[in-house]
């Protein structure tokens, strides 16, 4: 339960554009309602509704004049009139008595005050709405006088601040918001969701792109808010694609050009070694040849990596027999393994067809097996296993070498990264090539520990479907 609450809080606490737009819409509604209430209060303050009706003043004056000689009946009549006025004003809510005050004067004497706690209210100018301060409070008051019996009637309502407090305390402001906002949330959510559909389409197309697909987005929104962003993304993709193309071309050209001088250097060093009889010089030339071999291997791996990266993502794959392809590569590498005193063993459970690009898969297999041979001691056995694993093809290469520490098994797939404790020479590109090929074919590659304590490299690729029309290709 606590985990679910924590997950829910984390999701809610995460910034959301949808929630931001909903809150903005609700805030706009609340602001409009607040403005409307504020204008209503201001209008009521400037021109209170009760003070507009002259007939109310005349009726109170008439009651006071006609019952002047009957004070008791006069007071009862004024109280009844005041009660009827308050009831009409408050619409049956008795607590609204505080919203209006009536005072009646006759022959200079206050004969009626609807509220005993309210001090005497006097206007400076008769028959005009004024702000009167009495008892430390502000009132909007109007006085109408009659020359008969010197009768005056004063009607007053509280100032705008008291009106605001009354409106807030009785829920006239908050209650409509509380009732209406829930009914506005769903329409607001629906409108925002519909409005964001073009945005989601751009996001969906971007998410479906592979890491090497740098072509411009196919969806071009007509909306002026979204169109500049898509244009900026397409411009960025073009710049990145051009930069990547230039980088790959530079590396490929440099690697290709290096092959000729390296080959020439090897020929010359071998010739000098054959002509020299000094053992020290011959040892130095042997070291030069080993360095030349490492450089040539690095150049070859760079070319393999560039070829692997240059494979078009939209190119049609061909159906290949992975088991046959592995068997063919083992036959090609057998001489290297024999020279190092390593035995190769192949285990195939069944035919394993895959869809892919042949040169890339050959490069992947060669690097896996070459690494296993390189790091295995003399007399060891490298076991290659090809099998089906559900809907995927499984390729494992196990050696008995020093292995790789678990903390570095992810990093060794990075280009030019090598285990710092590794004594064997290398370029750090072999597993990077494997990772590049596997990613292009929609598979995955992981490193683990072999049964004999060495390294176990596991590659999984999607199996080819039986209804694919491409011919089955095996070998070179």
Task: Summarize the SSE layout with pairings.
Elements: H1 2-13, H2 17-46, H3 49-52, H4 54-66, H5 71-90, E1 101-106, E2 109-113, E3 130-134, E4 137-146, E5 151-158, H6 160-169, H7 174-195, H8 197-207, H9 227-275, H10 279-310, E6 318-321, H11 322-339, E7 343-348, E8 353-356, H12 358-375, E9 381-389, E10 392-398, H13 430-440, E11 444-449, E12 455-462, E13 472-473
Parallel strand pairs: 6-13, 7-9
Antiparallel strand pairs: 1-2, 1-5, 3-4, 4-5, 6-8, 9-10, 10-12, 11-12
Helix pairs in contact: 2-7, 4-5, 9-10, 10-13, 11-12, 12-13
Describe the structure.
This protein is of the alpha+beta class and 476 residues long. It is 53% helix and 17% strand. Strands 2-1-5-4-3 form a five-stranded antiparallel beta sheet. Strands 7-9-10-12-11 form a five-stranded mixed beta sheet. Helix 2 (17-46) runs antiparallel to helix 7 (174-195), helix 4 runs antiparallel to helix 5 and helix 11 runs parallel beside helix 12 (358-375). The two termini are 60 Å apart. The relative contact order is 0.06. The model is unreliable at 92-97 and 467-476 (pLDDT under 50).
List keywords for this structure.
53% helix; disordered C terminus; alpha+beta; five-stranded antiparallel beta sheet; single chain; rod-shaped; 476 residues; five-stranded mixed beta sheet
Secondary-structure-based class equals alpha+beta
Q: What shape does the CA trace take?
A: rod-shaped
Distance between the termini: 60 Å
DSSP E strands, number: 13
Instruction: Indicate the low-confidence ranges by residue numbers.
Output: 92-97, 467-476
Beta-strand content: 15-25%
Mean model confidence by pLDDT: 78
SSE order, as H and E? Answer: HHHHHEEEEEHHHHHEHEEHEEHEEE
* Number of alpha- plus pi-helical segments: 13
Gyration radius (Cα, Å) is 46 Å
Spatial strand order of the main sheet: 2-1-5-4-3
- Major beta sheet, specifics? 5 strands, antiparallel
Helical residues, percent: 40-55%
């Amino acid at each position: 339960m606590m985990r679910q609450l924590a997950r829910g809080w984390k999701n809610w606490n995460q910034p959301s554009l949808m929630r931001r737009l909903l809150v903005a819409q609700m805030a706009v509604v609340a602001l409009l309602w607040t403005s409307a209430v504020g204008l209503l209060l201001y209008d009521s303050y400037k021109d209170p509704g009760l003070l507009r009706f002259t007939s109310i003043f005349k009726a109170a004056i008439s009651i006071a004049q006609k019952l002047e000689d009957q004070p008791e009946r006069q007071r009862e009549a004024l109280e009844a009139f005041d009660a009827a006025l308050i009831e009409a004003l408050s619409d049956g809510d008795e607590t609204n008595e505080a919203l209006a005050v009536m005072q009646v004067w006759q022959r200079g004497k206050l004969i009626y005050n609807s509220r005993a706690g309210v001090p005497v209210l006097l206007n400076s100018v008769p028959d005009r709405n004024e702000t009167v301060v009495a008892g430390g409070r502000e009132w909007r008051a109007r006085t109408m006088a009659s020359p008969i019996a010197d009768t005056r009637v004063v009607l007053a309502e509280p100032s705008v601040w008291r009106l605001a407090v009354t409106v807030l305390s009785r829920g006239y402001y908050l209650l409509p918001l509380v009732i209406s906002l829930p009914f506005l949330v769903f329409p607001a959510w629906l409108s925002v969701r519909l409005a964001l559909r073009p945005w989601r389409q751009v996001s969906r197309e971007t998410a479906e792109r592979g890491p090497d697909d740098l072509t411009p987005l196919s969806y071009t929104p007509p909306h002026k808010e979204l169109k500049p962003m898509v244009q900026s993304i397409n411009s960025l993709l073009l710049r990145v694609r051009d930069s990547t193309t230039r980088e790959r071309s530079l590396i490929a050209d440099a690697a290709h050009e290096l092959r000729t001088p390296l080959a020439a250097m090897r020929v010359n060093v071998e010739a000098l070694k054959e002509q020299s009889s000094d053992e020290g010089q011959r040892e130095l030339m042997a070291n030069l040849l080993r360095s030349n071999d490492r450089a040539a291997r690095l150049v070859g791996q760079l070319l393999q990596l560039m070829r692997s990266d240059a494979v078009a993502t939209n190119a049609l794959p061909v159906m290949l027999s992975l088991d046959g392809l592995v068997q063919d590569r083992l036959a090609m590498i057998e001489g290297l393994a024999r020279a190092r005193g390593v035995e190769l063993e192949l285990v195939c459970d069944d035919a394993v067809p895959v869809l892919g690009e042949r040169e890339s898969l050959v490069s992947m297999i060669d690097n896996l097996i070459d690494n296993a041979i390189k790091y295995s001691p003399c007399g060891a056995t490298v076991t290659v296993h090809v099998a089906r694993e559900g809907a995927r093809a499984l390729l494992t290469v196990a050696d008995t070498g020093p292995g790789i520490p678990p903390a570095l098994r992810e990093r060794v797939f990075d280009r030019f990264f090598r285990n710092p404790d590794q004594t064997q020479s290398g370029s750090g590109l072999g597993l990077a090539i494997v990772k590049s090929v596997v990613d292009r074919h929609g598979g995955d590659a992981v490193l683990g520990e072999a049964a004999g304590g060495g390294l176990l490299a596991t590659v999984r690729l999607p199996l080819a479907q039986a209804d694919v029309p491409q011919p089955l290709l095996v070998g070179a």
